[in-house]
Amino acid sequence: MYRIIFTIIILITLHSLFLSELTAQTIDSTQLKKTNWHLYPVAFYTPETDFAFGGLAILLFRLSDQIDSKPSNVRFLGYYTLNSQYSFSVKPEIYFNNDKCLLESEIYYSKIVDKYYGVGNNTAEIEKPEYDYKNISIQLQAQYEFIKNLRAGFIYEFKDTKISNIRENPYLLSGEVDGNKGGINSGLGISLRYDSRDNIFYPSGGGFYKLAFIFFNDNIGSDFNYTKSYLDLRRFFAVAENQILAYQFYYNLINGTAPFYDIPPLGGEDIMRGYYSGRYRDKNYFATQLEYRLRVWWKFGLVGFIGLGDVASEITKFELKKFKYSYGGGIRLRIDDV
Questions:
Q1: 226's torsion region: left (phi>0), alpha (psi -120 to 50) or beta?
Q2: Which residues contact 219 (CB under 8 A, 6 or more apart)?
Q3: What is the Cα–Cα distance from 73 to 68, expressed in whole angstroms?
Q4: What is the pLDDT of residue 45?
Q5: Could you tell me which residues come within 8 angstroms of residue 114 by beta carbon, excluding any fewer than 6 positions away?
Q6: How many CB atoms lie within 10 A of CB 31?
Q7: Segment 79-117, tens digit of pLDDT
Q8: Which of 83, 94, 102, 139 is surrounded by the most beta carbons within 10 Å?
Q9: Cα separation of 166 and 175, whole Å?
């Protein structure tokens, strides 16, 4: 427990010192631009959470006097669900030194009622897949722009997971699943990112491409030894006035012995929507998605999407006939720049 607390304190301290030192070297108080707060109530339903209620706050600001500089933002989200889950997160994305430097963080604290069906793309339904866990997760990224729109840097990921109740899940009761009691994931890695979007929050052109490798090892405090790699490719096209096509391809790969809860899950709120996140999971996961976005009135718009994806133990084991697909639509809210 003391190791966890000490690690978190060190990470947050280094994060704060790094940001304050670099920003102090590159800006002064006269350069700070307009600051905007956006506050929204949150209510949603997903197969993972049931109905959920909470709030979202977004702070937008600039740390550069350049007209075309990228806006920095900090996002605060908290919600509670009808099946007694809760989650709180803070996500800063800070551009400074005339956008040459980027510092990103994702900090989560949550209590989740999840389900585990085993590993593979053809796992059967089981009567009691539920289990409970609590999670503290911190990811820090620091990147520098070497060429216009191209950044490279480092990632540190820390996660402390406690399986608080395995209930009657047969896989976790067997004691043969890696991570069935939780544990600490501590990983250090590198990332490469190319971002040519014309707007961070509501792009109508350009692309976002990211490649990352994170190495988890007991030498840096991890209870598990494995490598996580992922590729995220997104492209945006303005096809007509107030109409946008957004395409995404995502691939996640695990090498080594990862805890079951960090083996890539298919589904969730971002891609392959409609599938319970983790209903299918394996060491190789790919998904591709096409969205049509229509701006209707003020900040409100409509969105329709189709997606295709699957999981497999190896890249050569994907089978076309087993691919999963998703489709749907909804309402989209635009967040304006500062």
A1: beta
A2: none
A3: 16
A4: 81
A5: 48, 130, 131, 132, 133, 261, 278
A6: 12
A7: 999 988 999 999 999 999 989 999 999 999 999 999 999
A8: 102
A9: 10
For the record, the structure tokens of 163 come out as 């399986």
Residue 256 inside a domain? The answer is yes
Find, among 96, 63, 35, 30, the residue nearest to 338 by Cα.
35
Give a yes or no: residue 338 inside a domain: no
CATH code, domain with 322: 2.40.160.50
**3-state class of 200 per DSSP?**
coil
What does DSSP assign to residue 269?
A: S
Strand partners, 213: 190, 229
Q: Is the pLDDT of residue 246 over 90?
A: yes
Burial of 207 per CB tally in 10 Å (0-12, 13-18, 19+): middle
Residue 271: HSE in the Cβ half-sphere, 13 Å Cα cutoff:
23
What is the Cα–Cα distance from 241 to 238, expressed in whole angstroms? Answer: 7
Work out the angle at residue 291's Cα, subtended by the Cα atoms of residues 105 and 263, and round it to the nearest 5 degrees: 50
**Strand pairing of 36-46 and 130-147?**
unpaired
Distance, CA of 319 to CA of 120 (rounded, Å)? 12
